[in-house]
Amino acid sequence: xxxxxxxxxxxxxxxxxxxxxxxxxxxxxxxxxxxxxxxxxxxxxxxxxxxxxxxxxxxxxxxxxxxxxxxxxxxxxxxxxxxxxxxxxxxxxxxxxxxxxxxxxxxxxxxxxxxxxxxxxxxxxxxxxxxxxxxxxxxxxxxxxxxxxxxxxxxxxxxxxxxxxxxxxxxxxxxxxxxxxxxxxxxxxxxxxxxxxxxxxxxxxxxxxxxxxxxxxxxxxxxxxxxxxxxxxxxxxxxxxxxxxxxxxxxxxxxxxxx
Length: 259
Known about the structure:
This protein is of the alpha/beta class and about 260 residues long. The chain has helices at about 10-15, 20-30, 45-50, 65-75, 90-95, 140-150, 165-170, 175-180, 190-195, 220-225, 240-255, and strands at about 35, 40-45, 55, 80-85, 105-110, 115, 125-130, 155-160, 180-185, 205-210, 235.
């Protein structure tokens, strides 16, 4: 039986049903938790521990380094690999470098994210709604959206619905009311998170962006405003951290009662 793509629960179920021997299961579980490839120690057991495989942060890495990490993860059976903060030029190098692996590869330039392998079908409790104050916030929103989708979530995008024209947000109140989790992304004074937080009955993840004039201080004003939100149920991630918001939204959307 092929075990590379199996998680620990599937392995135990296979042993329980007799489809896999206990010795084969032990062999699989003894696989080293990481691979040292010189410049990186690739965490091969992160999906086992956290439910999501290691994500490659591409901004400070070369295309060759990213290629090596992708190869290590693919060899360990990771079927979908996410690479964040990746420039278009570097992405082209990565895609060419791993072409012999036969993996699907898609690059999302606005989000600066590449996805290799097969994206899972949407699952979880419901939909992740992503709202932005303005069009300038969309790159951060797309980083969050692609992250959510690559991890197996259905995403609804509500872009350019900021408080300067609050009727635009009100027109989308049905989507807001139906959401399992909402990501509210805004720069300037960051008021969108408080407004959405006052409308929704689900967790709201606020993302301040570095959009705004001088006194916005590259997102610090929005960050402080969101941290001081009077709406209950609003949590805040770092400035421009669309990936962090998308990852957290995925975790919330896939929560289940533990025995």
